[in-house]
Amino acid sequence: MQIVETVQTRAASTSTLPSTAVSAPVVDPGASCRHCGLKCDGGLVWSAEGIFCCHGCEAVFGLLQAGHLAGYYASETPPGVSQKYRATLDANRFTPLDDPAIAGRFVEFDDGRMAVATFSIPTIHCASCVWLLEQFWRFDAGTTRTEVNLQRRAVRVEYRPVETSVRRIAEHLSSLGYEPVMAAETPGGTVPSLRRRLHLQIGIAGFAFGNIMLFSVPRYANGAPLADGFQSLFDALNVVLVLPVLLFSASDYFRIAWHALRRRTMALEVPVALGLVVLFSRSLADIASGRGPGFLDSFAGLVFFLLIGRLFQQKAFDSLAFDRTYRSFLPLSVRTERAGGAVPTPLEQLQPGDRMVLRRHEIVPADAVLVEGHATVDYRFITGEEAAILLRAGDTVRAGGRAGCAMRLQVVRPVSQSQLASLWANPLFGAPKARWMADIAARFGAWFTVAAIGLAIAGAAAWWPDAAASASVATAVLIVACPCALTLSAPITLGTAMGLLGSRGLYLKQPAVVLDLSRIATVIFDKTGTLTSGRTRSVAEADGLSDRAWTLVRRLALESTHPVSAAIAADRDHVLEGVENGAIAAALPGPEDVREIPGQGLSGTVAGVRVAIGSAAFVAAATGRPPGRADRTWVAAGDEWGWVRLAEASRPGVEDAAGELADDRRLFLVSGDVDTDHARWSRLFGSNMRFMQSPEDKLAFVAAVQQGGRPALMLGDGLNDAGALAAAAVGIAVSDDSACMVPACDGIISGDRLADLPAFLRFARRARHLVIACFTISIAYNVVGLTLALTGALTPLASAILMPISSLTIVTLSAGGMRWSARRMLPA
Amino acid sequence: MVGPADAAGMSVIVLLIAAGGLVAGGFLCAFVWAVQTGQFDDTCTPPLRMLGGDDPRDATPSPSPERHLHDHADR
Known about the structure:
The structure holds two protein chains of two kinds. Chain A contains 27 helices and 30 strands. By secondary structure, chain A is of the alpha+beta class. Chain A is elongated. Chain B has three helices and no strands. The A-B interface holds A 68-69, 71, 74-75, 111, 113-114, 116, 126-128, 130-131, 134-135, 137, 144-145, 147-152, 158, 191-192, 195-196, 199-200, 203-204, 207, 211, 228-230, 233, 237 and B 2, 6, 10, 13-14, 17, 24, 28, 31-32, 35-36, 38, 40-45, 48-49, 51-53, 55, 57, 62-65, 68-69, 72.
């Protein structure tokens, strides 16, 4: 029977709790929270203002009402961010910001009277968020102005440092339900100067393109040079207009080509730069000698279209960080014991021998040993598994572990030398990943350059006795041969595909990853956190306890991070006198006499009542009753007892998706866990399963699978997958909440879209086919152009028509074709 | 032989080109200014900003950052 039903049908009375009757109104079970719009399944807070899913949401709602900011709720869907997670947050998490060195990471400007700080807030998502956060000065009188950047999920706050502080701003933001990220890597004030430069380059090239066209058309229409000095005036104006295009807009192509040649490598920019140089010098020569108007309009147009392709290439998800190191998983500082108590210490200053004082749920920043007593630690951020490990005094705790209770640890090694950091010493992490796209571009660039120069020489030879005609034909060949297919079609197709995938929950690091995704031969899955959801277990069934007793059990469960306790503590909330029992449980005084016996159970006294959670034998021993069935977890509070059954849920649809992928790809399961439910996974993976794999094992396995040029896709979530994600042709991290806690990767997929992976891979393959189609079309244009060039018929007018038309066809086909395919192939 | 009428036509066109160039150059400068002041940095948030609507009680809009910094520097 579901807990929900048991709770609502029982009248409860326990002397340890205030004994008003349960009077929560009967509400539609599908009711959604007034603040965040989430379904309030189970847990409800009912107030005069409406229904809320938790107290956090109610508090934010009340705060906004008091500030006359109800306009926040004007949009159709409630815009708030669910505050259920708040219960797990440490109340002192912003204390480190009192240290100027740490606060300084958020501050980009400070002259003593005015300061500017930037916070990263992954939960910013809609117009209401923007509106509310830009009224932030109402909540913190010391701030003068806030500016939200939705794309980067960042808030820039201007404030008077004498009246407020970084810590107070962070606390106020948090109280509004927008929790700022407290990590070593903050967005900071990195101005996207590269993108500004590209915008300027495009603007100037477009400006020149249009105006040169304007001054060229009279001559084309006239069919002969214009009379009365107009021709020389227009020619002079064109040369003046084209100079900024040559020197500024096109400069990156020359620079990259020059670097490539000096390193004796090939890049696609080489033939492009060659074409541009020939185009420009031939035009100048024509104009100077009066032989013709030159190809300056084609030149400016070509640069303009090439730069548009580049704009697509530079697309990025600004709000996501793909290149994370272990450092971004660690806190900014840790409290250490100094004379006079616990002092926040920046991690850089942590020395072996220092004693760290950790609270529950804090991350252990350095390898250390437990000083005294017992403690539990889980490595969920490293392995993806939440199971707690029991430690005794003297046991080693590795950096990255999460404290299951308050504990004191003695540092063994500095942060940078921890085992966690050692994985990043692998050379894989330093070098940028080899992209198939770059490989093709280099090979195609070399081939294309040789072919174009060869054809130019052949053309010159054919016209030889006539030196002027030879030169003209040779230059015409180099002008018309442009590797547009790859410089224009690939960036636009892949950039559009990347954007379309991003709107469906698969965020790629760069457009070129789409091409790598299109030729995946092997898919490797991590188990815990990837195939199954990160919250590995949840209460599937429970029976036997009144909701009062259940509240006491939940209070005890909070003391342990064992998956069973975690599942009980995180169970859906039920209303008790208008307050959810999770909140009541959290408000109860700490249990006394808590004992946790690994592998058996947990017992303690909550508000004077003996409570036990554990195996049948453990609970039987604790309560003096005969043991129940062994296939479930038993719970007891006072003289009541009952049971719960937990299930490890695989993500919905994932098994079907894996089955579909198996049709034409090899599948592997690589897990750091013990081989528990072998039978369940062997249906999908057969014998392709490896268990008990260390991070280094996973890395080596991925490398071995890719031997012989068979690119692999690795899907993982924990830090222990970081090596495998870096080694795989494409490494995609699976993330459930905000993208705060993902290892370095080529892409991030949100956990609920994993079932769409087969569709995403088909879509990537379609993108490749579209690039090939554009390639064919551009070859057709090149054949026409080269025919004109070799027969000496490539006039400036022909070039001025052919070049923009071919570019426009490819731009339209690439962007339009991808959008059309997305509508047909991708789930909404 | 350039007749008086032709000369007049030429100078008018030159004048028009100069005027046109000035207008176009003005727009180019406006574009450069817009890019340099970061107006193309975030193309996502500003359209949403206007959806929020103004609070009638908030008659005095908060000052812009540059203005504010200057105010302080002047004192």
